[in-house]
Amino acid sequence: MKKLINDPNQFVDESVEGFALANPHLDVHETPRFITRREIENNKVALVSGGGSGHEPLHAGYVGHGMLDGACPGEVFSAPTPDQIYECAKVVHKGEGVLFFVKNYTGDVLSFETAVELLHAEGIPVVNVLIDDDVSQELNSHSVVGRRGMGTTIVVEKILGAAAQKGQSLDQLVDLAHRVVCNGWSVGLALTSCTVPHKGSPTFDLGDDQVEIGIGIHGERGQTDLAYKPADELVELLADKIFNGGDYSRHVREWNRNVGAWVEVELKNKSLKQGDRVIAIVNGMGGTPLSELYVVYRKLAQLCAEKGITIERNLVGSFITSLDMQGCSITMVRINDSLLELWDAPVSTAVLRWGM
Amino acid sequence: MKKLINDPNQFVDESVEGFALANPHLDVHETPRFITRREIENNKVALVSGGGSGHEPLHAGYVGHGMLDGACPGEVFSAPTPDQIYECAKVVHKGEGVLFFVKNYTGDVLSFETAVELLHAEGIPVVNVLIDDDVSQELNSHSVVGRRGMGTTIVVEKILGAAAQKGQSLDQLVDLAHRVVCNGWSVGLALTSCTVPHKGSPTFDLGDDQVEIGIGIHGERGQTDLAYKPADELVELLADKIFNGGDYSRHVREWNRNVGAWVEVELKNKSLKQGDRVIAIVNGMGGTPLSELYVVYRKLAQLCAEKGITIERNLVGSFITSLDMQGCSITMVRINDSLLELWDAPVSTAVLRWGM
User: Fold this and answer.
1) If you count residue pairs, one on A and one on B, with CB atoms under 8 Å apart, how many are there?
2) Catalytic (active site) residue A55
3) Chain A 257-316, CB below 8 Å of chain B: which residues?
């Protein structure tokens, strides 16, 4: 294993320290570890996310005006602890409540749920919103855990960030978050595994002539091991999973702050169809050159055009990664004029920055 | 070789086509291939760059308001042809002259020089500016070709873009470009080679316990093959090359449009010293995760602090790459208030975007 790191035990600390030095306008807290905006408006709901490290720029790269107020990086591929999340929320909360964006992984869900209960006990209004957009995973009665969270996370965080900045209430924001989650789909493809620093060797083996569709962002194995094919054929396989698998509903566990209890909320996605407008993300997994991502975007744009789906905005780059994994993921989120306006609203983070 | 490409012969065309689809506000010309801003102000000098493909986002990712007016991508690691550059310049020229930014590689230099002569023959004022900032290469009397061009390119393009936008004349811009080039240094490090699609195998072999310092952006071998070390030690080696090797002068061949001939221009760099202010870039070579680049930035920032050098602005990410190479390069450019103001001026490109 050759990586630009020192001691694997110090990797996350040192990477976050580097992030802090490169972004001196943000506050980086050490014990427990979290990143916050320095100046948060008093009349806005606080937005917090977090998850394992190794997915950079997620989530610290999205802290700033018009997006997140706080981010909690765990160890590599490990959920942040409840106290990280709790302390972060306490710092960014300005009296209007806190919204958590939680990618649907067991560890993340548990930590955020514990933080929700701690905050509720102190009388702080808080709601967790789950992101579960990985359509490569089957959803059936055996699926207790549900689908994983992927690139829709970025769109939720951006759109909600703009809405919070405009002063929308916690209840309005929760509705809006559901709307985005119910219109977002992702699917990933690995050309190679990633190598976790502590382990020092690839998480799984993938032959020189093999790729894997449906991989998770922690190097989880996918559903389909198949022969390496030209990019256009691979993109077609990925896009088909989004085009064809988009009609479903599921229940997610969410905190209802009015009744002070966990409730099951039904979320329904309805497939993309002709005439729909989307934000499309072609995302590199960490070790993928930008030039290849544009080859992927080219085919995706062609396929959308054939389907009569308009890509209104796009991101092409590495936005939610798996350490050094080579491969890509595709995310599509259906939008309308009001969501688009929120997407276009000014944002100023380490990674997404426009309008200011 | 597993890459997200189709036919290696179509790779650049398809990648550029994807870039065009993802950036519909830019004009992408096909035969010959170049990218231009759609609306260029009438009173500004036109700025054009180009070079081999495989270094994305360089240069197309820097076309837009406040940076380049046109970019000419060659084949992978191959210079653009003179007609690409000539046609591009003709499209973006608005009567105030054209400035070429040329990374110092033989092929690029030749193509741009030919384009200079073609444009001059038509009475279009044009000057080429050479970027030769790779301090890992020895400069001595045997060095006919000079040093390679690396990350200072991005700083030159950004600062000159802002100055052109403000209406500075071609002569003023040439002086300003010299000023930036004379204050910029880069050095690169490879953990792995890159794989050119046509070849299908790594350009060079690097053992599992070896790294190479002083690599070029085309997978050229470096000057120093050494044992893999922790990131901090590697960063120290890189930074020392910049701190210790910054005092030198050389002559570059530049078009003098007033006399209508090639002249030798002397450019002098004076080493960074205590009290200096810089823009620092920690750049990934294409296959390097962002998390590792922050580990590199952390050490670089510490070393600069020890030297009394203030990093006023930074970029951490993949800005000038070598396909899928793992590794990084460091660039430092000494700035003052006026250069900083130009760096901070609004820019709107696919990659750098702020203030608008």
Assistant:
1) 182
2) yes
3) 282, 286-299, 301, 314, 316
Give the helix, strand, coil percentages of chain A, each rounded to 5.
30, 30, 40
Instruction: Please report where in the chains the tokens 């996350």 appear, as a residue.
Output: A12
Asked if A191's CB is within 8 angstroms of B289's CB, the reply is no
Question: What type of residue is A342?
Answer: L
Per-residue model confidence as pLDDT tens digits over A83-113: 999 999 999 999 999 999 999 999 999 999 9
**pLDDT higher than 90, residue B270:** yes
Q: Domain A11-182 belongs to what topology?
A: Rossmann fold (3.40.50)
For chain A, the domains span 11-182
Mean pLDDT of chain A: 95
CB-based contact (8 Å) between B16 and chain A? Answer: yes
Contact A149, A103 (CB under 8 A): yes
> Chain B within 8 Å of A2 (Cβ-Cβ)?
yes
Band of residue B143 on the pLDDT scale cut at 50, 70, 90: low
Residue type for position A71? A
Q: Return contacts of A226-234, CB within 8 angstroms, 24+ apart.
A: A228/A191, A228/B2, A230/B5, A230/B6, A230/B7, A231/A292, A231/A295, A231/A296, A231/A299, A231/B3, A231/B4, A231/B5, A231/B6, A232/A299, A232/B6, A234/A189, A234/B4
Distance from CA of A7 to the nearest CA of B (A): 8
CA angle A122, A26, A24 (to 5 degrees): 155
Residue B35 near residue B62, CB atoms below 8 Å: no
pLDDT over threshold 80, residue A141: no
Cross-chain Cβ contact B324/A326 below 8 Å: yes
Residue B115: enclosing H or E segment and its boundaries?
A: helix B106-121
CA-to-CA distance for B303 and A21, rounded, in angstroms?
A: 12
- pTM beyond 0.95, yes or no: yes
pLDDT for res B258? 87
Q: Is A218 a catalytic residue?
A: yes
Q: Which residues of B337-346 are buried (b: 16+ CB within 10 A; e: fewer)?
A: eebeebbebe
The Cα-based distances of A75 to A9, A20, A23, B180 in angstroms read: 9, 17, 20, 40
Beta bridge partners of B195: B202
HSE-CB at B265 with a 13 A cutoff on CA atoms is 20
Residue B318: CB atoms within 10 A of its CB come to: 27
In whole angstroms, give the CA distance from residue A79 to residue A92.
20
Q: Which member of A59, A93, A178, A218 is catalytic?
A: A218
Kindly indicate the confidence band of residue B229, based on its pLDDT and cuts at 50, 70 and 90.
Answer: very high
- Long-range contacts at A272-276 (CB < 8 A, ≥ 24 apart): A272/A185, A272/A242, A272/A243, A272/A246, A272/A307, A272/A309, A272/A332, A272/A334, A273/A309, A274/A307, A274/A308, A274/A309, A275/A308, A275/A309, A276/A308, A276/A309, A276/A310, A276/A334
Q: Which of B244, B252, B193 is closest to B217 using CA atoms?
A: B193
Pairing label, strands B347-348, B327-335:
unpaired
The answer to whether B248 touches B241, Cβ cutoff 8 Å, is no
Distance CA(A188)–CA(A210), nearest Å, equals 14
Contact residues for A272 (Cβ-Cβ < 8 A; gap 6+): A185, A242, A243, A246, A278, A307, A309, A332, A334
